[in-house]
Structure formats: structure tokens, C-alpha cells
Sequence to fold (171 residues):
Amino acid sequence: MLQRLIASPKFWMSVPTALLTMSVIMWGTATWIAVSDDASYAIEKDYYQKGLDWDLHLAQQKANADLGWQLVQTIHRSKRGADNHLVEVELLDAQGKALTGASIHLEAFHVAHSKFPQEVDFKPIAASDSNGQQSRFKATLRLQPAGQWEWRWVVHRDDELFTLKRRTLVQ
Fold:
């Protein structure tokens, strides 16, 4: 039976048709995946320009090390069922003293769903130092789903720039 099927000219005429059909299905599936809104498929924003600016990135890392600033973040878990979390940040200098007069920006995204990053500017918390300057900041973020998040901090203070990239486990 099998030998008769293989010897049949109709069988060999259908082989290229079947191969072409499978190829069209595979290309269609690949195209659908490429244009879908699946959050697990993401490309680093401006990756080519970041590659060209690698020397600037290394210079910024050196400037960060020279400044020695620290960002201490606290995540206040939302009430059961709520997606929003309050994130508080304190900015400290190399000696651990509070830094005032800064502006803080954050880009955050879930590592497994990085197609949809969140960007937020932190607002100063009302408590201030003796000069009326704030050293603590807060913002509300939607930190769902739980898991590893990448936080990309940018801090401006006068003419100084501090950047920090950190992975944070959100539960």
C-alpha cells in the first residue's frame, strides 16, 4: 500500500504543494508574532543610538561612581486587589547625608513584559530640612504583574547628573 502511494504521480505532485503551504503558514505565524502586542517581545528603545553613545555611557558610569550618590527606595504594597503601589525614594550623598534640591525621573518595566515601560517624575514629600528643601520623593506606579522589574533612575541636581539601573523584585 505504501509503495503504491509513493509510486503514484499524484503523491509527488502534492509534496511541493504541501511544502509551500507549510511555508506560507510559518511566514504568516512569524509575521503575526512580530506585529502583535505581546509584551514579552520587546526591543530596547533607541538601541542603535545607545550603542553609538557607549563611550558617553561609560563616562556617565564614572561620574556616578565619583558622585557616590545612593537611592534608597521603599515600595509600599497596595491594598489587596489594587494594582498601584506607592514608591518612596530618599537621595543620599556618598557620606549617607540627605541630598536636597534634586529632581528624580524613573523608567520602570517588568523584565518579562518590557514592551510597555512606565515613566514617572517623583514629587517631593512634604517633610523638608531646615532650609525648606526636600530630600524624600514619592510616586505611584502600577507594578503588576509581580516579579523582576528593571528601574532606570535619572537624577538631576543643579548641573550634576546621576543615573542608576537596578533590578527590583516586586511581590
User: Anything to note?
Assistant: The longest strand covers residues 147-157.
